[in-house]
Amino acid sequence: GRIEQIGNARDVYENPANRFVADFVGTSNVLDGAAAEALMGRRGMFVIRPERIGVFRPGTDPVPGVRTVEAMVSEVIYAGPTTRIAAIAAPDVTLTATVLTASTWLPPDLHHGTPITLAWPEKAVHQLKFEESP
Q1: Is the CB of residue 114 less than 8 Å from the CB of residue 71?
Q2: Which of 3, 16, 43, 114 is deepest in the core (most CB within 10 A)?
Q3: How far is CA 67 from CA 1, 34, 57, 79, in A?
Q4: Which residue from 13, 20, 91 is spatially nearest to 52, judged by alpha carbons?
Q5: How far apart are CA 37 and CA 100, in angstroms?
Q6: CATH for 9-124?
């Protein structure tokens, strides 16, 4: 093996050096190719951590510095204090959000097929290098 990144835990988690590190340390939404073009409006490879994505009512207006996308729920996993929501945000693009159950707008009947708005601050997006680990 080889060392992929050296740093403190916060830096490695928030600023992974490559996709291998992003996937190895926690859960990630990795966008590249057509997904990056559709959701980020530019080319590149990007990481957004699930806890940085908010879930809102459909049609929620964006605020400055926050990117929004209309999506359709594909899976809901209730885990007590948190709920994990997978949603189709573009053709062949599923994003996962992890939200605090008690402090977030979540209808009790949230289920597959429910329309939602996903939102994340621009500063929550980390751009990766295109190089991949072997």
Answers
A1: no
A2: 16
A3: 37, 17, 15, 26
A4: 13
A5: 29
A6: 2.40.50.100
Tell me the C-alpha distance between 98 and 63, whole Å: 21
Give the model's pLDDT for residue 130. 65
Q: Is the dihedral of CA 127, 13, 132, 95 positive or negative?
A: negative
Determine the distance from the C-alpha atom of residue 72 to the mean position of all C-alpha atoms in its chain, rounded to a whole number.
14
Two structure tokens written together for 33: 């190719």
For the chain, where are the E strands, in sequence order?
29-31, 45-48, 54-56, 66-79, 82-90, 93-100, 115-121, 125-128
CB proximity list for 7: less than 8 A, separation 6 or greater: 15
CA distance 50 to 59: 20
C-alpha 74/C-alpha 28 separation (Å) is 17
pLDDT tens figures, 39-77: 998 999 999 999 999 999 999 888 999 999 999 999 999
Residue 35 has which token pair?
Answer: 């997904």
Cβ neighbours around 17 below 10 Å, total: 17
